[in-house]
Design goal:
The longest helix has 88 residues. Helices cover 40% and strands 18% of the residues. The protein has a five-stranded mixed sheet with strand order 18-17-21-19-20, with no helix packed on it. Strands 4-3-6-5 form a four-stranded mixed sheet, covered by helices on one side. A four-stranded mixed sheet has the order 8-7-10-9. The radius of gyration is 51 Å and the shape is elongated. Interacts with CDT1 and ATPase VCP/p97. Interacts (via UBA domain) with FAS (via death domain). Interacts (via UBA domain) with NLRP12 (via DAPIN/PYRIN domain). Pfam families: FAF1 (PF21021), UBA_4 (PF14555), UBX (PF00789). GO terms for molecular function: NF-kappaB binding; ubiquitin binding.
Length: 650
């Protein structure tokens, strides 16, 4: 059993050899091999690439990260100490250390550009990528943010000993700052997607191509070359705006119509060549192998047919990648993948989901239980000998295409480029765990393509099957159907649970609605009672105010009455006896010369205002309140005595 010190050395040596930076993942792999360094490395590095040996002879060997080993050290080595890296240094016959990928987040004004490069690249390589992305000449850039001092365009990234993730920023002191409105509109145009509808004139075929605003006209023409086999120099275009004068211009500034623009392309007719021209071109044929791609694709000028070149099919020579390397947007990468797949294998193929892997999960797993599907992930690899057979004979078989379209959401990724492979393994680790990621990482190139069948569960996503490329149509269909049976059983349970949950939710909604209606009724009843009580209170207040007012008037009248005359008064006195509606009587003496209004005030002071009551005489019966109140009692014949009674007015 290795000690803690030995394990630390083994872990460091294992990471240096394999390039695996995740410590947890490296420890897991070592524990699976009982901390046997050689066995762990052999499990990660394919055997045909060369197996690291635990012993070596006395010659001087050079490891990729530790420098030359001396003769004395080699001679003193013992086979029993194979757990230390110095006894497992790979020789020149053994595969070189895998390149280390570095991630850069580069900030320029209000933009961020992600760049992924091998550590063998230079600083100038980063600037060239930024030149295409930012449309800024590399000579005008100052790339800042390095942790070390002197850095120029020729500096190799490996020599800077950088971490995997780095942040840089670009300064352009020689360029004037753009106006905010123009810069904002340009940045927005660069992010937009343009649909170019390109018609191939000779075959009357139409292609719908999606490009970002940052793509150049040259890139469009190269893509059209892949589709039509017309070399760029032989392409005759119609429909480009007058402002599109330079193939290096981006679509955002070329003047093409957003979001859709129509173009027509045909083959430019070649003039009749003279004998001298033919001899000159034949001489140039020998230089094709040393020329760049543009010269090679124009080999038709040298009398070589477009269909074949030197006995090799031209489609094989100029086969475009299925997916751009370091694609920023997964949706754009899948658009190119689908277009290239159709170009190679025809239009009868699975319908690939266009979008990120997370979006594919949402589409497949997170809808209604009845609408959920399995997720099939197709992993392509152009360098596998099985790829063409698998794609053309199995993946494009009508039975497979039909079954996938009915029961699966199909998502694809190209594992040919190392950057794209690393990106998928990162996504795989995040969504499926390190075990599945390690399974895919250890697959050999000739075991591709791979077909992963994924089923969504409540808590995690389960990989039901990993199908390798060395299969048949019948076996592929059988494994798809087997996965579908497992999924159908799980789906029925999910549907039952969902129906029960919806039933419970419906009952709860009905109860909540009944409760809400009850609360509304109670609130309405309470509000009505409150309104009634408020009205009663208001009326009571009015009544009280009126009573208080009447009492004040009564007291005022009572105080304003003249004093009652004495019975022995020398003046003429009238004695009045008044009967109330309740049958009570009250009497009072008045001077005969007093006005009738004094009698009215006296009656009102007793609580019977003459506005509400009338005072009636007996013989003859008359309404005294209708008489002139300014006349004296003598004048209205209420002298020397009279009996009157009160009656409420109607």
């Amino acid at each position: 059993m290795a000690s803690n010190m030995d394990r630390e050395m083994i872990l460091a040596d294992f990471q240096a050899c394999t390039g695996i930076e995740n410590i947890d993942e490296a420890i897991t792999l070592l524990e699976q091999n009982n901390w046997d360094l050689v066995a762990a490395i052999n499990g990660v590095i394919p055997q045909e690439n060369g197996i690291l040996q635990s012993e070596y002879g006395g010659e001087t060997l050079h490891g990729p990260a530790y420098g030359p080993a001396s003769h004395s050290t080699a001679a003193s080595s013992t086979p029993s100490s194979s757990s230390a890296f110095r006894h497992v240094v790979p020789s020149r016959q053994i595969v070189e250390r895998q390149p280390r990928m570095l991630d850069f987040r580069v900030e320029y004004r209000d933009r961020n550009v992600d760049v992924v490069l091998e550590d063998s690249s230079t600083v100038g390589d980063i600037k060239r990528i930024l030149e295409n992305e930012l449309q800024i000449p590399a000579s005008k850039m100052l790339l800042k943010g390095w942790k070390t001092g002197d850095v120029d365009d020729s500096t190799v990234l490996k020599t800077l000993h950088l971490p995997k993730n780095n942040s840089l920023y670009v300064l352009t002191p020689d360029l004037p700052p753009p106006s905010s409105s123009h810069s904002g509109a340009l940045q927005e145009s660069l992010k937009q997607n343009f649909m170019l509808i390109v018609t191939h004139r000779e075959v009357q075929r139409e292609y719908n191509l999606n490009f970002s605003g940052s793509s150049t006209i040259q890139e469009v023409k190269r893509n059209v070359y892949d589709l039509t086999s017309i070399p760029v120099r032989h392409q005759l275009w119609e429909g480009w705006p007058p402002s599109a004068t330079d193939d290096s211009m981006t679509l955002a500034v070329s003047g093409v119509t957003f979001p859709c623009h129509r173009l027509t392309v045909g083959r430019r007719s070649s003039p009749v060549q003279t004998r001298e021209q033919s001899e000159e071109q034949c001489t140039d044929v020998h230089m094709v192998s040393d020329s760049d791609g543009d010269d090679f694709e124009d080999a038709t000028e040298f009398g070589v047919d477009d269909g074949e070149m030197f006995g090799v099919a031209s489609s094989a020579l100029r086969k475009s990648p299925m997916m751009p390397e370091n694609a920023e947007n997964e949706g754009d990468a899948l658009l190119q993948f689908t277009a290239e797949f159709s170009s190679r294998y025809g239009d009868c193929h699975p319908v690939y989901f266009i979008g990120s892997l997370e979006a594919a999960f949402q589409e497949a797993f997170y809808g209604k239980a009845r609408d959920r599907k399995l997720l099939a992930i197709y992993l392509h690899h152009d360098e596998s000998v099985l790829t063409n057979v698998f794609c053309s004979q199995m993946l494009c078989a009508e039975s497979i295409v039909s079954y996938l379209s009915q029961n699966f959401i199909t998502w694809a990724w190209d594992m040919t480029k190392e950057a794209n492979r690393a990106r998928f393994l990162t996504m795989c680790t995040r969504h499926f765990g390190s075990v599945v990621a390690q399974t895919i990482r250890t697959q050999k190139t000739d075991q591709f393509p791979l077909f992963l069948i994924i089923m969504g569960k409540r808590s995690s996503n389960e990989v039901l099957n990993v199908i390798q490329g060395n299969t048949t149509v019948d076996e592929l269909m059988m494994r798809l159907m087997a996965a579908m049976e497992i999924f159908s059983a799980q789906q029925q349970e999910d549907i039952k649970d969902e129906d029960e949950r919806e039933a419970r939710e419906n009952v709860k909604r009905e109860q909540d609605e009944a409760y809400r209606i009850s609360l509304e009724a109670d609130r309405a009843k309470r509000e009505a009672q409150e309104r009634e009580m408020a009205e009663q209170f208001r009326l009571e207040q009015i009544r009280k105010e009126q009573e208080e007012e009447r009492e004040a008037i009564r007291l005022s009248l009572e105080q304003s009455l003249p004093p009652e005359p004495e019975e022995e008064s020398t003046e003429s006195v009238s004695k009045l006896r008044i009967r109330t509606p309740s049958g009570e009587f009250f009497e009072r003496r008045f001077l005969a010369s007093s006005k009738l209004q004094v009698v009215f005030d006296f009656v009102a002071s007793k609580g019977y205002p003459w506005e509400e009551y009338k005072l009636l005489g007996t013989f003859p019966r008359r309404d005294v309140t209708q008489l002139d109140p300014n006349k004296s009692l003598l004048e209205v014949k209420l002298y020397p005595q009279e009996t009157l009674f009160l009656e409420a007015k109607e």
